[in-house]
Amino acid sequence: MITRRHAIKLGAGALALHPLGVAAGSDQHPEIIRRPIPGSGELIPVMGMGTSRTFDTGADADSLATLGAVMQAFFQAGGSVIDSSPMYGSAESRVGDVLRAMSPQPTVFAATKVWTVGRDEGIAQMEQSARRMNVEVFDLIAVHNLKDWKTHLDTLKAWKQEGRVRYIGITTSHGRDHDAFIEVMRSEPLDFVQFSYNIEDRVAEQRLLPLAQSRGIATMINRPFQRGALFQKSRGHALPGLAGELGCATWGQFYLKFILGHPAVTSVIPATSKVHHMQDNMQANRGPVPDQKQREAMLRIFESL
Length: 305
Description:
Elements: H1 4-16, E1 34-36, E2 43-45, E3 49-50, H2 61-76, E4 81-83, H3 91-101, E5 109-114, H4 119-133, E6 138-143, H5 149-162, E7 165-171, H6 178-187, E8 192-196, H7 208-215, E9 218-222, H8 229-234, H9 241-245, H10 251-260, E10 267-268, H11 275-283, H12 292-303
Parallel strand pairs: 3-4, 4-5, 5-6, 6-7, 7-8, 8-9, 9-10
Antiparallel strand pairs: 1-2
Helix pairs in contact: 1-2, 1-3, 2-3, 2-11, 3-4, 6-7
C-alpha cells in the first residue's frame, strides 16, 4: 500500500535524479533575483508559488506524488515563498502533507490568509491553517479580500507583537474594492499587500503599486498570466528578439519578466500543478530584469499580437 508520505517521496525522487540546486538563501543560488521586504530589509526570491486551484486536490497517492514533484522543483530552483488560503479548499492541507514528507525540511516563507467573520472565528481559522500547513510561526498572514478586515488586523497586529506572525497584510484576488483597499493601505501599518497585475491587466500601475512603493509596503502579485488568458493571445507567435536579451526562453518567462520589471513588485506567485510549468516559471527568477524602456517595448509587442 502506498502511503501519503511514500507517494510524495516518489514524486520528489524523480526530480532528485536531476537536481537543479538547493533552497533559496543558499550560496549555490547567488544568481537568483531577490528583493527586500521594505519594512525589514529581509531578502526573498522574487518568484514564489501560489496554490489557488492547483493544490485543491484529494489526498490520494497520485495527487500527492504530483504535488510533491511540483514543490520539489520549486525548492530545487531556489524558491521559498508559498502562498495559500483557507479559501482555496484543501490547498493548505496539501501543502502541509508535502512539507511533512520532505527530508531534509526545505526553507519556506509560509504565507496564508484569514477569510472569515469574527475575532474568535478568525483566530480559530488561522490556528487551523498553521496545523494544515505544518507551520509553527507564519511568515505572513493577510486578510483575504478585506473580509472583516478591521477585526482581523487588530488580531494580527497583536500576534505580530507576540511573535506569532512575522508580517501582516491585506489582499484582493479579483480586482474589486480598490478604493477600500487603498484606504486600508493608507491608514494601517501593513507589511504586505497582494493583488492582481500582469501585462494585460495593468490597473495596479495607476494607484496600488505607486502607493505601496511610497508607503514602503511589499507587494505580492497574483494572476500573473490572467488565469492563462495571456497564452491564448501569444499562442502560435514566435518569441521576439527582446525575449532573448532578457533571458526568456518562453512566453511565460516573458510575461513574468514584465511584472518583475516594475520596481514596486516584491514577489510574484504563479500557481501550477505541472512540474515543467514550475521549472519554466522559476527560470524567470534569473537573468536580466527589464528596464522601463524595455517594458514599454514588451507592452508594444504584446499589444501587437
